[in-house]
Design brief:
Layout lengths: L5 H30 L5 E6 L5 E6 L2 E6 L5 E2 L4 E2 L4 E2 H9 L13 E5 L4 E7 L4 H10 L5 E7 L5 H11 L4 H11 L14 H10 L7 E4 L4 E3 L4 H14 L1
Parallel strand pairs: 8-9
Antiparallel strand pairs: 1-2, 2-3, 3-4, 5-6, 7-9, 8-10, 10-11
């Protein structure tokens, strides 16, 4: 068996890296031309399926071919393990460090022993947020940090300020979201964290409400059911 010199092996490896980089640059340029400047293409790498490339755009995973002629949206599932590889990659991309969240800027609601913790980004005029709040109301032994992010309208800003500046912000929030009791500010001009919350939401990629974050940094978007949240808490317990 002929053994190639180390210098030649290193050269071949370098050529391979350069060729992959060139291919990725060509794919990126073609995709950017077709998708426009608003599409933030972060990375391009070989996909689990030969001939396809994994493209991360605005923290969303899509796939394309070597000529960037096609864009494939959907999940790649490994049949042997049942793992949704696309979902796993997006979860990793969207992960945050939960302990970095500024808890002082959130409404704090505690039920039972409060041992299970989540953070929720919500708008007071968001219908899905109201559905989620009703689901959370049925859960025990939970601490909920709610970050008010008024993104739907000027009225959302007014309501968020009234809720934050009320005598009991957490209670006022729940009364509004669940029972439609209009919020009343005890101190109309009190300092509030709304601008900081909006900046934080943008930083961690929250583009819609509600968005739920768990203690491991993973997120679930939308008005998910109590059962979905309970399952996630159970999975976190198993991982410990």
């Amino acid at each position: 068996m002929r053994i190639l010199p180390l210098s030649l092996l290193l050269l071949l490896g370098f050529i391979s890296i350069v060729s992959h980089a060139d291919a990725n640059d060509k794919i990126k340029a073609e995709l950017q031309k077709q998708l426009g400047s608003t599409a933030q293409i972060k990375t391009i790498s070989p996909a689990p399926i030969p001939g396809l490339f994994e493209v991360v755009i605005n923290n969303t995973v899509v796939y394309t071919d070597a000529s960037a002629k096609y864009l494939i949206q959907g999940s790649i599932v490994e049949l042997k393990t049942g793992a949704n590889l696309t979902e796993l990659k997006e979860d990793e991309l969207n992960k945050i460090k939960f302990t970095d969240l500024p808890m002082k800027d959130a409404l704090r609601t505690v039920r039972g022993d409060g041992t299970r913790v989540i953070a929720v980004f919500a708008d007071p005029n968001c219908g899905y947020c109201k559905t989620l709040e009703k689901n959370l109301l049925t859960m025990d032994n939970i601490t909920i940090f709610t970050y008010l992010i008024p993104i739907l309208s000027a009225d959302s800003t007014a309501k968020s300020k009234a809720i934050w500046c009320s005598a009991d912000p957490s209670k006022t929030w729940i009364n509004w979201m669940v029972q439609q009791v209009p919020p009343t500010a005890a101190k109309p001009d009190c300092a509030n964290p709304l601008d900081r919350n909006l900046a934080l939401a943008k930083k961690i990629g929250v583009t819609g409400t509600p968005a739920i974050f768990f203690s491991d940094g993973t997120r679930i978007p939308g008005a998910v059911s109590k059962e979905t949240i309970e399952k996630k808490f159970a999975d976190l317990t198993v991982k410990k």
